[in-house]
Structures
1.
Amino acid sequence: MFARPFELIHQLLAREESNEVPARVAGWLRTKRETKELAFLELNDGSCQKNLQVVLDKGQRDWSAELTRLSTGASFQVEGTLRPSPAAGQKWELVAQTLVVVGEADPTVYPLQKKKHSYEFLREIAHLRPRTNTFGAIARIRNTIAMGIHEFFQTYGYVWVNTPLITASDAEGAGQMFRVTTLDLDHPPRTPEGHLDWSRDFFGKEAHLTVSGQLNGETYATALGAIYTFGPTFRAENSNTTRHLAEFWMVEPETAWLDIHGNMDLAEAFLKFLVTRLLERHPEELAFFEQWVQPGLLETLSTVAERPFARITYTQAINVLQNSGKVFDYPVSWGIDLQSEHERYLTDEVYRGPVIVTDYPQAIKAFYMKQNPDGTVRAMDVLVPRLGEIIGGSEREENLEILQVRLDQLGMKRQDYAWYLDLRRFGTVPHSGFGLGFERFLQYVTGMANIRDVIPFPRAAGSAEF
Ligand code: 4AD
Ligand code: MG
């Protein structure tokens, strides 16, 4: 048997009956306000967005010793009577009988104060920022979405597979990998020709942190039928943007017997499920983001949950962009990789919501995508307003010869992908999958402008604090 040592504020505030009850809570002080007769403490225990108002009656006893030690950030335990609050805007308050200050937070040095702090400043104190409204809300939403991801896929019989973080293959072929090595970089072993001798490294060959679990995921999908991975991925993208992290989480379902259309249906149902779940579970957090971060967020989310996503091909997208009459910084012609200004024109101005773009030119997509006869591949990217791409996926090339030729064309060695090619050599099946950037999704549903603010401890070019 286990019980948390104190009652949780979110449970106390949800009480339906209106009788008084004894209660014991503990947490951190947000603010304090005093009159001659009373003191009011805003107590937050992290269980919800709301604080519990604790009332100290100075007529009942002398609280001055406690009150001088209680400043913003201090931790304390309090026991008293929960009663309907006479004040507007809150249902309950706790009238204290005993109060123990456990840890003071010296107000001359405690960095979090009542005023609103900039996100830049809060990033510098990432160990304390979970104590703010914004970061507490993000942590709870992140948790709910993570659980929702599992629930969604489990409902459809997908098996969660844990793919390795250390890998010897480059899934995306984009060359943005972090090296994993134990070689002494000051005195590395060299081959007779003078190159670094990776055969003497820990794994006996070059190894990197994975950019995607997909290739390993495909091995299990072509045995178990449907799997998903959910874990950290790493990209040494030296782009200092508000949408890129060096370490981020990705969800990658992979489904046997599914073509690109089924894959799009899966992606759309998945995003709608997560948004609906969020609307049900976190009205308080969402109201907070609506008020302080992104006005219009709630409407955006309900539209995403209800309205079908637009679906267009890359070629149609290029036509729309070319006929827009807009001058883009990066000129539009068939074959270009869509830039974020192009994606945003499609999502923010033309379709005003999520758009799935399919059938991109082969040259700008990864080697494993299924080829169409016309020089395009069965790629599918889900683009959303404000952010652009949050999902990248495709139907996979399941034909052995076509895939081998593609590797050759790209100068990739067949023997490096021997096990991946085996999936096509033995009992090949059509299959499809995609990757959702977990933090990009969190950015979308909270309205947070910078991806570094939706992960507890961001790792990005030039920054790996905490
Ligand atoms: O489009 P990407 O590169 O696709 C893949 O990695 C495929 N192997 C997925 C699959 O088909 N199984 O990445 C997928 C998503 C992107 O759409 C984006 O949301 C996110 O991962 N992403 C990043 N998120 C944060 N920081 C970065 N540096 C990211 N790079 C990609
Ligand atoms: Mg992509």
Note: Residues 275 and 301 are 7 Å apart (CA to CA).
2.
Amino acid sequence: MLAQLTACLLAPHLPISEKELASAIEIPPRPELGDAAFPCFTLAKTMRQSPQSIAERTADAVNGTDEGVRAETAGGYLNLFFDPAVWGNRILTRVMAGDYGRLQDGQGRRVVIDMSSPNIAKPFGIGHLRSTMIGNALANVYQAAGYRVTRVNHLGDWGTQFGKLIAAYRRWGDRALLEAEPIRESLRLYVKFHEEAESNPELEDEAREWFRKLETGDGETRGLWRFFVDESLKEFDRVYARLGVRFDLVLGESFYNDKMEAVVDRLTELSLLEESDGAQVVRLEELGMPPCLILKSDGTTIYPIRDLATAVYRKKQLGADLLLYVVGAEQTLHFQQVFAVLGKMGEAWHADCRHVPFGLMKFEGKKMSTRRGKVVFLDEVLDEAAAKALQVIEAKNPELENKRETAEAIGVGAIVFADLRNRRQLSVDFQLEEAIGFEGETGPYLQYTYARILSLLRKGKYEEFAARGKAAEGRHMSSPAAWACLKTASRFEESILQAVRENEPSVIGRYLLELAKDFNRYYNEGKMLTEDGEETFGKLSVAAACAKVLKQGLQLLGIRTPERI
Ligand code: ARG
């Protein structure tokens, strides 16, 4: 926002458009260098003057106005210092406006986000958890930037594992158990299958036969398959609800069963398929990649072709302008190959497909998937976090109403933020004790800062003052710490756009940490609730702006903001 305001201010004095100005303006990292700076170098040629003299002349012009801005020069740089007493209120008005943080940049563009996408009958791995949270945050951020967003759960609901599962269920299954605990029971069957298959190889044949039946549409087998899928989904849905994640579409891999043939036909028509060891592949040497396997030697389809059909569907039926795949880094080559094959198929939009990879997540130093015998039950991790949060609340504020609900919000928030605070490609070593703390770079720290501001606003009767419809006096929000808060609050929209450009939710996470730190510095600076009503109102207005942005930002990350903690 500051860049925008500065551009508006400078435009009358320089021969370039406001828009160009806005993109050239820099926000110096240290306040001593100004609140905003404009490098005059690129204008030297058109204006036939040295950058210094452009900077100096413009500084004089700005200093001659009474806009509440002081201009200085440093070489070819024009450095601007805003008078907080004048500009504080302008920023505040914008931040408090209903449409702040709701941009139009993506207008008319649809982004389809592939997220979560766990495999039925296999454990919901931690990779799927990261995909769920990163995908959800990205979906929110894109929405805030004005895009239309379709969140798709590309459920792994097809494949040979179903043959194994059905075979195992037929031998050792128990319907009641499966209904009660579908994931655990599926897993038990799956594990038992593999154990037994070691001494009894016939089982593999049995499984193949079941999968064949499934593929040919045998009624009873299909019924069993549906049952497995539906029961697992119910359990996933419980976790999704706790995480506050929803999908626009749940289209599993099976949805594409009848859509792959068209892709094979197209590849054939374009003579792109080549035989290799009995299998059909698309060669990608010229792109420096190994061949993409399309059909196995027995003619069965595999993962890549499903993704080709999926991408085509998303483009053509869902109207995607941008296709994001939030999937672990270990699938990088797979997506490079799929996108490359799309390119070879003449689908120019393959350039709008992006794999959004992320690193591994460990739980207290251990790979999450190895805990408790190969699996982490997400529910349990969330329960553990919520229980810890409840302990903290019991110690800090035993009188609190809705303790359980608040603890749930904090526990889940802690996990989500631990995932989103660092750049997604880095691996995460999740430490519950640390993540749940109210200090440090944690979700609860942000949630607590928010709740603390709300309590302050209640005590200071901020709403009553605000209801008068009169702006706070600038002089009461002009301390350096207050100004730092307002300046940071003014960068929210830029952060949203940066998060979109980089497909990086951590941009919002880091930004919110900065804002919370600014606020806490401001809070510790001195008494906010004073005898003087106008002074209190001025000071609280700055706090209210921080609260508003904190709340909106946390919502973008998918983290709830309890009003009292
Ligand atoms: N189910 C897959 C897995 O767990 C992830 C699917 C990702 N999405 C996709 N379109 N391939 O590995």
Note: The pocket of arginine is lined by residues 114, 117, 119, 154, 156, 307, 310, 325, 327 (CB under 6 Å).
